[in-house]
Structures are given as structure tokens and as C-alpha cells.
Amino acid sequence: MSWEHVRVRVTVIGVGRIGEALVAGLCRAGMSAESITVIGRSVERTSDVAHRHGVRVADLRNLPDECDVLVVAVKPQQIEEVLTDLGSAFRGSSLRPVVLSVVAGVATERIEQFLPSPVPVVRAMPNTPLTMGAAVTAIAGGAAATEHDLRLVESVLDSVGEVLRVPEDQLDAVTAVSGSGPAYVFLVAEMMIDAAMSLGLERVTAYRLVTGTLAGSSAMLGVGDVDPVALRAAVTSPAGTTAAALEVFERSDIRHTFQRALTAARDRSLKLSGMVRPPLAPAPGEQH
Ligand SMILES: NC(=O)C1=CN([C@@H]2O[C@H](COP(=O)(O)OP(=O)(O)OC[C@H]3O[C@@H](n4cnc5c(N)ncnc54)[C@H](O)[C@@H]3O)[C@@H](O)[C@H]2O)C=CC1
Ligand SMILES: O=C(O)[C@@H]1CCC=N1
Asked: Could you say which residues bind NADP(+) here (predicted)?
């Protein structure tokens, strides 16, 4: 997506790690800084982010007049407070952007309960390579989200990486795979650097060898439809050095460890949804 001739106004509520990564990625993709507004809790942090990227600042009681996509990027434990304020702000204005939540574990249905109907809600799970325009993001629309809303969201996320649609009940698994995934890769980098140093390499040499290897290998994986098993086989000479290392990995039950780790991440995402209490508004017929 080229932002040269298209104007989509994006507001990001919560400019922590993923919120700022999105702002950085959008600016890098050529979206005009004037189209981006940030809303944060800490005045200092928010103005730092705004200053770094040249974007605008607003607050929840004073939403920008124009906004097409309103991104919610706060922690699951913080979303209830934000949605309660957002619900009040929407009730007092005619603003009806698509609400795009990147919050792990919180269902669109839950989010919709805080907002006046029918606000379109889309849930997304991006990852931090957003910053480099190299994210992979899965999205799922809520009950009021139309094809047009999904395309609008896709146009924004497309400019900072790859986007795919999944059924919403798969988003917890997606979180375990690609949302948290960069951390697994960085852990591998950390462990390889430590192991390289234990073999006598200087830290700076170990760092360059490991980061270069991971970046080069990731670039090979990024070339369309490649098979990681075939790529691995091409490095593994019979009875050679790679085979010696891979035997150690297999004996340590690394596949099962990955299975358990991703299951734990998926289960945590499922559990996080329970952290949002029911909405404050009473159900129809209920007493105040
Ligand atoms: N960090 C990551 O790699 C990813 C995170 N996510 C999701 O993104 C969300 C944010 O995660 P992080 O950026 O890592 O957390 P973070 O803690 O770095 O950022 C959250 C930000 O929200 C702000 N905030 C809290 N309450 C607020 C309020 N009432 N109004 C405005 N701002 C408020 C905080 O001050 C903080 O700057 C989480 O729900 C997480 O599940 C999703 C994909 C990847
Ligand atoms: O660790 C977390 O809960 C968030 C969601 C995916 C990546 N970071």
C-alpha cells in the first residue's frame, strides 16, 4: 500500500511496545504523520513517542475529530478502563471508526459490549517486526465488522507487513505462534551467542555470526513457498557437523519442548480473556 494518494486516519490508544512499533511502521511505510494520533496514559511517554515520530497527541476525553481506525494497544488488564472511557466518548460524538484491538485474549464480543452498537470491532494479532514493516498479522472481524471494515484494516496492516484472516477462535493459537514468536527467535539468538562464546569466540564475533546467520536464514524463509525441512536438509551433510548438532537437539526432546511452550502461550491467551470483567452497563431489565 502506498500512502501517497490515500488518507486513512489512525489513532493508537496505548503507545507501549506494540503501539509504538505500529506508529513507527506506519511512518516508515510513508503514512503522513498528520494522519496518526497517539493517546497514552503517561504524558511524558506519550509526548516522547509523538516527538520521536512527529505524530499528534489526543486523549480519551478529547478524541480527534477524524479517525478511521482506532487501535487499542493496552494490556489485557487495562482494556476495561479504556473501553469504558471509549464507550462514553463514542456516546457523546458521531465518531464511528473501526476499533482495532491488538490486545491478546480479549474477544471482539467482549469489546463490543462496552461500545454503542453498531461499532465495528476487528481483533488483530501483530508482532513487533511491525517496526521494520515486516510483521505478520492475523485478523478476525467482530459481529458488526463489514467486508469494507476488514479491507480498511487490511490496508493499514498491509503497509507494515503481511496480513491474513483467520476465524476468531484461532487467534489465541496465532498469539502463541506469531505474536510471541519473535521472542522465541531472540531467545535462540541469545543462546547461540552464549554457546559461541563458550567455544572461545569473542562476544562481538559471536554476535555478528549469530545475528547474520539468523537474518540470512530468515531471508531464505521469506522467499515465498519454501520448505524449512528442505532448507535444513541442504545444510546437513551426512555424518557432518550439522548432523552432530541436530542429534543433540532431537535427543533433548526439543520438539516436545516447543509443543509445550506454544501450548502454554495459547492457554495463557485463553486465560487472559477472563481478566476482563463483565461490562459496567446493566443488562436489559437489570436494576442499577
Ligand atoms: N509486545 C508485543 O510483542 C505484542 C503485544 N500485543 C498486545 O498489545 C498490547 C500491549 O502490549 P505492549 O505494547 O507489549 O504493552 P506495554 O505495557 O508496553 O504498553 C501498553 C501501553 O498502554 C498504556 N496505557 C495503559 N492504560 C492506558 C489508558 N487508560 N489510556 C491510554 N494508554 C494506556 C500504558 O501506559 C503503556 O504505554 C497487549 O494487550 C498485548 O497483548 C500484541 C502483539 C504483540
Ligand atoms: O506476551 C504477550 O502477552 C504479548 C502478546 C503477544 C506478544 N506479546
From this structure: 73-76
